[in-house]
Amino acid sequence: MPRKFFQKYLPSHESIRQNRHVARFGTLFLHPNLWHVNRRSVSGGVAAGMFAGLVPGSNPVQFALAALLAVAFRVNLPVAVAVTLYTNPFTIVPLYLIAYRIGTVFVPGDGAPFNHPPGFDWSNLGAWLRASLEWMLSLGKPLAVGLVVLAIGLAIAGYVVVQLAWRAHVVLAWRRRRRRRAEGDAG
Q1: Number of structural domains in the chain
Q2: What distance in Å separates the CA atoms of residue 173 and residue 87, rounded to the nearest whole number?
Q3: pTM for this one?
Q4: Which end of the chain is more exposed for a tag (fewer CB within 10 A), N or C?
C-alpha cells in the first residue's frame, strides 16, 4: 500500500525525464532514487522535508532546501518538498516556542527575556507577520540553537516513524497473504 499510495500521486520517471523545466538542470534531477518509491527513499524524503521545514523563511526557501537535501542524499524529492508544508502560519509559532525552550537548555541565560508572541489577527495579516518576525528575531541565540536541534530531532523522528510504519505495513501484508494461502489450501 505505501508504494501504491505514493506512486498514484508522483510523476513517472519518463515524464520527469521529458519535462522541459527539469531538462535545464541536466542530469541533476534524473537520479532514480529522487523519484523512486521505496522505504529508504520515502523515509529519507520525510527527514529532509522535516529538517527543511524549520528553516526560517518562506515556503520557496524551504522547498529549495528540501530539494537540495533530496538531491544530496538521493532521497525522494517530491516527498521532501511536500513534507515542508507542516510549517505554516498556524504551526510556526508553537514550533518556534518549542525551539526556544529547547534552545534555552543549550544556551542558558543568553538572549532577551521571553516575550509572548503577538496575537493572530485575520484582519491585518501583514502586520501580524511582521510582528511575528520581529518577535522571532528578539529571541536570539536560544531560538537559533533550538531550531537546529528541533529540526534534527524532527528529521530523525520522521525517518524512524516512516521506517517503522512501512515495515509494519509490509509485515501485516505478509501475514494476510500467508493467512489467505492457508485458507485456500484448507478449502
Answers
A1: 1
A2: 33
A3: 0.75
A4: C
Domain assignment of residue 22, given as a range: 2-186
Contact 73, 40 (CB under 8 A): no
Q: Which residues of 65-89 are buried (b: 16+ CB within 10 A; e: fewer)?
A: bbbebbbeeebbbbbbbbbbebbee
Do the beta carbons of residue 50 and residue 154 sit within 8 Å?
A: yes
Q: What is the pLDDT of residues 116-168, one digit of tens each?
A: 666 766 677 777 777 777 766 777 788 889 999 999 999 999 999 999 999 99
